[in-house]
Design goal:
Layout: H1 12-21, E1 35-39, H2 51-69, E2 73-77, E3 79-80, H3 84-99, H4 103-106, H5 108-122, H6 125-131, E4 143-144, H7 148-163, E5 167-177, E6 182-184, E7 189-205, E8 212-217, E9 228-231, E10 245-247, E11 254-259, E12 271-274, H8 280-288, H9 315-328, E13 332-345, E14 353-362, H10 364-376, E15 381-383, H11 386-396, E16 401-402, E17 404-405, E18 415-418, E19 424-426, E20 442-444, E21 448-449, H12 451-455, H13 458-461, H14 470-475, E22 478-484, H15 488-503, E23 508-514, E24 517-518, H16 535-542, H17 544-553, E25 561-562, H18 565-590, H19 597-602, H20 606-627, H21 631-658, H22 663-684, H23 689-696, H24 721-744, E26 752-758, H25 760-768, H26 770-777, E27 779-785, E28 795-800, E29 803-808, H27 809-812, H28 815-840, H29 843-848, H30 851-883
Parallel strand pairs: 1-2, 3-4, 9-11, 15-23, 22-23, 24-25, 26-27
Antiparallel strand pairs: 5-6, 5-14, 7-8, 7-10, 7-13, 9-12, 10-11, 14-16, 17-21, 18-19, 18-20, 26-29, 28-29
Helix pairs in contact: 2-17, 3-5, 10-11, 10-15, 16-17, 17-18, 18-21, 18-22, 20-21, 20-22, 20-24, 21-22, 22-23, 24-26, 28-30
């Protein structure tokens, strides 16, 4: 028998172990089944399960469990990401703490040994944690972005792109993180508006004429690397200055004024200093005008020799001191407070520094073109579709992707340099000698690839690519990618263009985009705010099912959701309600006689047909919702059916039959209770897998585990429209009577009589099922009338479709108690009227108090007087009743 109380700790872990041990998650190729594939966005091996993972992975699990039950070969591929920067930082910190060494002192080979050791110890931690959510992924297929197969795929992809001229090595301006000591792609730079300053600096003409140009800059420390001043060719103010030379402030270096389309005449002074080494737009201007390039900031974000006395100083410290010097020497015209967009490292938050460097790049334009096409032709669909605009906008404005990273942990770039002739060899296998000069003095590139380069291959490298495996043939392309909107640029775009290049197909049909889980106040969860919610802690307190259901029913595609404790408490209450209802049904079924479906169907009553029709209709609606990725609607409909229709209505209606002596009627009711329970457990299982599996194991006539059971299907023959119409009218009547009872303050235990004014079909339906109304609304007698004049006059009424329900006041009210209540209310209202009249008759108050306050008091007085009139009228009515 099902345990007396719902305690998820007693069965969640046990059930998960059983699922895993018995191979419930394993998916094989089956020619008789359609495949349905999802690849799990691989969490970082540095990661700890957080609420974002919980949301993302529960969404995937709902879809996988549903499709598995529909008979698909549903494959969910799990895995983890090596996370170059994040992992290297962790390992470096560990080595420093335990061995007192830097990674350079340790050496690359020893460092990588420590990194792999770290991965073995901590890398599996998050996969153990996600099991607690109930994830039904195929753990036998678990992958890692640096495992042998993924390594091979990454090398193959790099070499193929290189051989087609789509990867090149170039000396270009890149995003540099001075803290992480590596390059970052544009997508890895987070832009933030901060309060900053514009420094207006005077550049004097080199000819000594006294002429000058004023330039506004937010980064005066880069003035040392200026190579020109740019003005718009349309700007009349500067037409006679183009070509003239001006001196860089505090130096003796001369630079020219160039005419270029980049400056905006409406912004600042219309003149822009051009520093190609430290600004991306300036770099483009510099290329157009062949300005060359010089740097005044190094890779540690310290000033170079070009900064003179500021050499070796931090860039921001230099700014403070240099601004002071500019001011003292008369070059600083003014300072203005402005909001400035600043790019920061997505990992550590350090402000990035544009730096000129030799790096590896992917030529994006030809790859982006195909990724745009699949979105435009419907081969790739975003849910919700508004994210397609963001996807397309980013691709249409994409720049070449810098893929090299100055790290040791990651996929090392398969490029080799001949130390004798300088030849660059890119090869899938390490070459033994230079193909150009024959030298064996070769050195492999020190850098590793951007993490997103390898994870971009995830949907197909995990299925065997570059080999033409049977898995790749059967399970690819995948069906849906579930991801947060925050990594569309990082990951989704890269997967699409990579897959189109390598396989000729979009890696998935749908991209289901969800939002972030925020705190109750709508703030992003973060360590600094201390507002993070640990999902493992929530699972310990409320159970995994409650957490899952709260997350699933609290979302709409693409939008953020707020985590509120009362919502997870509500989800647990729902689980508790289901548990208690199931236990009640099972206890009654213990001593019942099992009857055949044929016999039960011959003895169905109206309520049986109604509940069977309702679960049939809900099946159709929920399936349609899931097909459209409306997971929250689907979950809510299952909740409403179980809580309201099955528990609050059907069980209450059939209770009298369960205690009756009529064996056939009793056994039919139990048959229907269990049959409908089986369907509703199937519908709920993807959302709350543990509790549904546990209850299922106690139900009679179930084969195997619920995880492998068939998803219910809509049956037109089970619609029972007449019985549904009749029962819904009955329930409206019961609700109406309950509302009248509550409004009158009559206790539920107080027995009432009712009059129903109706005719025709509504009257027939209500009279044929009046036993339900009597039982559920605690009514002793119902009189059906066609004319209201035949009913008592002192009544409270309720209107439902085709009928009016009247309850005599004599039944509803305890007149002695009502008299006592009304006398108390009369006293209270008289005191309030007297108090406010006294205040308003005080001339001092009326003259001194604000007009608004006086008017409010007058309005209160009128309200209290109206209430008092009603109470007095009611008192007369009640006294009249008591005097009879």
């Amino acid at each position: 028998m099902l345990a007396k109380t719902y305690d998820p700790k007693q069965f969640e872990e046990r059930i998960y172990e059983t699922w895993e041990k018995t191979g419930c998650f394993k998916t094989e190729r089956d020619p008789g089944k359609k495949p349905f594939t999802i690849v799990m966005p691989p969490p970082n091996i540095t990661g700890q399960l957080h609420m974002g993972h919980a949301l993302d992975q529960t969404l995937q699990d709902v879809l996988i469990r549903w499709k598995r039950m529909q008979g698909y070969a549903a494959l969910w591929v799990p895995g983890t990401d090596h996370a170059s920067i994040a992992t290297e930082v962790k390992v470096v910190d560990k080595i420093r703490a335990e061995e007192g060494k830097t990674k350079e002192e340790l050496g690359r080979e020893e460092f990588l040994k420590r990194a792999w050791d770290w991965k073995r110890v901590f890398g599996g931690r998050i996969t153990e944690q996600v099991r607690k959510l109930g994830n039904s992924c195929d753990w036998s297929r678990e992958r890692f972005t640096m495992d042998e197969g993924c390594n091979k795929a990454v090398t193959e992809f790099f070499v193929d792109l290189y051989n087609e001229g789509l990867i090149y090595r170039g000396n270009r301006l890149i995003n540099w993180c001075p803290c992480c000591k590596t390059t970052l792609s544009d997508a890895e730079v987070e832009h933030e508006d901060v309060q900053g300053k514009y420094y207006y600096v005077r550049y004097d003409a080199a000819d000594g004429s006294g002429d000058s140009i004023i330039v506004a800059t937010s980064r005066p420390e880069t003035i040392f690397a200026d190579l020109a001043i740019a003005v718009s060719p349309e700007d009349e103010r500067y037409k006679d200055k183009v070509g003239k030379e001006y001196i860089v402030p505090t130096t003796d270096r001369k630079i020219k004024v160039v005419a270029d389309s980049y400056p905006d005449p409406e912004k600042g002074t219309g003149a822009v200093k051009i520093t190609p080494a430290h600004d991306f737009n300036d770099f483009e201007v510099g290329e157009r005008h062949n300005l060359g390039i010089i740097s005044c900031i190094d890779f540690d974000a310290k000033m170079t020799e070009l900064a003179g006395q500021y050499k070796g100083m931090d860039r921001y410290e230099c700014r403070k001191l240099f601004v002071k010097e500019l001011e003292e020497k008369g070059f600083l015209v003014k300072v203005e407070d402005v909001v400035i967009p600043v790019g920061k490292c997505y990992r550590c938050g350090t402000v990035i520094e544009p730096m000129l460097s030799d790096q590896w790049f992917v030529k994006m334009e030809p790859l982006a073109k195909k990724a745009i096409e699949v979105a435009n032709n419907g081969e790739l669909v975003h849910v919700p579709d508004r994210f397609e605009k963001i996807y397309l906008h980013w691709l249409e404005n994409i720049k070449d992707w810098c893929i090299s990273r100055q790290l040791w942990w990651g996929h090392r770039i398969p490029a080799y340099y001949c130390q004798d002739c300088g030849e660059i060899i890119v090869s899938k296998e390490a070459p033994h000698k230079c193909p150009k000069c024959g030298s064996e003095n070769l050195r492999q590139d020190e850098d590793v690839l951007d993490t997103w380069f390898s994870s971009g291959l995830w949907p197909y490298s995990t299925l065997g690519w570059p080999e033409k495996t049977e898995d790749l043939e059967y399970f690819y392309p995948t069906d849906v990618l579930v991801t947060g909107y925050d990594i569309i640029f990082f990951w989704v775009v890269r997967m699409v263009f990579s897959a189109l290049y390598s396989t000729g197909k979009s890696p998935f049909k749908y991209v289901y985009v969800h939002g972030l889980v925020r705190d109750a106040q709508g703030r992003k969860m973060s360590k600094s705010l201390g507002n993070g919610i640990d999902p493992l802690e929530m699972i310990d307190l409320y159970g995994a099912d409650a957490l899952r259901f709260m997350l699933m029913t609290g979302i709409t595609p693409g939008n953020d959701m707020r985590f509120q404790t009362e919502k997870i408490e509500s989800a647990r209450n729902f689980a508790n309600k289901l548990w208690n209802a199931s236990r009640f049904v099972l206890m009654n079924a213990e001593d019942s006689q099992v009857i055949s479906e044929e016999e039960a169907m011959k003895n169905l009553k109206d309520e049986d047909k109604w509940i069977m029709a309702r679960v049939n209709a809900v099946t159709k609606e929920v399936t349609a919702n899931l097909e459209k990725f409306e997971l929250a609607f689907a979950g809510q409909k299952v909740y409403d059916f179980i809580w309201n229709e099955y528990c609050d209505w059907y069980i209450e209606i059939v209770k009298s039959r369960l205690y009756a002596e009529d064996g056939i009627d009793r056994n039919t009711a139990i048959f229907v209770l269990i049959r409908v329970m089986k369907d509703m457990l199937r519908l709920l299982h993807p959302f709350m897998p543990f509790i549904t599996e546990e209850i299922w194991s106690f139900l009679p006539d179930t084969e195997g585990m619920l995880i492998n059971a068939r998803w219910p299907e809509y049956d037109e023959k089970m619609s029972y429209e007449a019985e549904v119409e009749k029962l819904e009218l009955v329930m409206d009547a019961v609700r109406s009577i309950r509302n009248i009872r509550a409004e009158a303050g009559a206790l539920p235990s107080r027995k009432l009589t009712a009059f129903v004014i109706s005719s025709g079909r509504p009257s027939e339906m209500l009279s044929s099922d009046e036993r339900y109304i009597k039982n559920l609304a605690n009514i002793t007698n119902i009189t059906f009338l066609t004319d209201r004049s035949m009913a008592p006059q002192d009544v409270m009424s309720g209107i439902i479709s085709g009928a009016e329900i009247l309850i005599p006041l004599d039944d509803l009210l305890d007149y002695e108690a009502e008299l006592e209540r009304l006398n108390k209310e009369n006293d209270r209202l008289n005191k309030e009227v007297k108090r406010i009249e006294g205040k308003l008759s005080n001339e001092g108050f009326v003259k001194k108090a604000p007009e608004k306050v006086v008017n409010e008091e007058r309005a209160k007085l009128e309200n209290y007087k109206e209430m008092l009139d009603k109470v007095l009228a009611r008192l007369e009515q009640v006294k009249g009743k008591l005097s009879k």
